[in-house]
Design a protein that fits this description.
5-stranded antiparallel sheet; 15 strands; Heat Shock Protein 90; Ptase_RsbX; PPM-type_phosphatase-like_dom; single chain; alpha+beta; 2 domains; HATPase_dom; Phosphatase 2c, domain 1; Anti-sigma regulatory factor
Length: 342
């Protein structure tokens, strides 16, 4: 089976716009328009992306607190994702808010209804105690499957850093989904160079066995600062994990966290032990996540029940928003095995 998506997502961190003032609504809209153009989305799609970001940011500004908008290419390429997350007070009647014309502030009320009409795929969760997370995905007409795939990714630089020493990539080949999360040592440009070298090597070797991919990256990173690396391959009923360093894997069912794994001690590009693969059984309801140490690992120790039941795009955004240690680069990738054609 050929790869489901043929357009790889650019190696770039998630654009983050904190909604702490009404002027941030305009910043979110212009950022979404710019990222859409970087993704070569044609015609009116950059303007549509701007509308989606504007509406989601405006909802945070009017109704919520501690909100942020994340803007990035789809993990598998072929489009754009705009994610909004806040800390409450939540939406009591989500279904009504998705209908055009519904308003609680005396405004036009297009809001989430407009987002729902524009988006190829829309996911939303809201609780009055923890807040709201919305993922709106816009896909190219011939790559709408990219928006349906259960993969979520947020990759954030440390506070005050323009470049991100973390990176991630996802490839679908042969009926399996293979994902990479890499944490370049340290911060800034040299860490980012190591992370992106790992991504380039991964894309050239992604069909191989996970230890072979890791070994290829080790060679590619010899003249860099080095990195912690985790590889994940998802099939129906099983996950394979191969890690060097402290990029962690967590497998979650709707009721519990049932696997937590950390990579072997070492640094890819410097001193790496012979890599080996762990195999973890999966049920159809299991979501598997990789995250770097910029995410507080306590999130997976006693996660709230609603977190366990989130779809992959909302899980990644919720964990990133709630558990990012802002002094460090942070990446969360959540995924399930590939969906078949709809």
């Amino acid at each position: 089976m050929a790869a489901l998506m043929v357009t790889p997502a650019p190696v770039a961190p998630t654009r983050q716009v904190r909604i702490d003032h009404y002027s941030a609504v305009h910043v979110a809209a212009e950022t979404a328009r710019a990222v859409a153009k970087e993704c070569a989305l044609p015609g009116a799609m950059p303007d549509q992306a701007a509308v989606v970001a504007s509406e989601l940011a405006s909802n945070i500004d009017k109704h919520a607190r501690n909100g942020v908008v994340y803007i990035q290419p789809l993990p598998l390429g072929g489009g754009l994702e705009v994610v909004a997350a806040d800390r409450g007070p939540g939406i009591a009647e989500v279904a009504r808010c998705l209908a055009d014309g519904y308003t609680t502030t005396g405004t036009l009320g297009a809001g989430l209804g407009a987002v729902g009409r524009i988006a190829t795929e829309l996911a939303i969760t809201s609780r009055t105690d923890t807040g709201t997370v919305v993922s709106a995905r816009l896909a190219l007409p011939r790559q709408r499957e990219a928006a349906r795939q259960p993969v979520g990714l947020v990759c954030l630089p440390a506070a005050g850093q323009e470049e991100c020493g973390d990176a991630a990539a996802v490839v679908d080949l042969g009926g399996a989904r293979t994902a990479l999360v890499v944490d370049g040592l340290g911060h800034g440009r040299e860490a980012a160079e190591a992370a992106q070298a790992a991504v380039r090597s991964f894309r050239g070797a992604a069909e191989g066995a996970l230890p072979d991919i890791m070994t290829a990256m080790h060679r590619a990173l010899r003249h860099t600062r080095g990195a912690a690396v985790a590889l994940l391959r998802l099939h129906d009923g099983e996950a394979e994990y191969c890690g060097i360093g402290n990029v962690r894997m967590v497998a979650l069912s709707p009721h519990e966290v049932h696997h937590r794994l950390t990579g072997q001690p070492g640094v890819v590009g410097w001193r790496m032990p012979a890599p080996h693969t762990h195999r973890v059984p999966l049920t159809p309801s299991t979501t598997t996540a990789l995250h770097t140490d910029g995410i507080d690992l306590r999130w997976a120790h006693t996660p709230p029940g609603h977190l366990l039941r989130l779809p992959a795009p909302l899980l990644a955004a919720t964990v990133a928003h709630a558990y990012h240690r802002t002094r460090d680069d942070a990446t969360v990738l959540a995924a399930r095995a590939p969906l078949g054609p709809s």
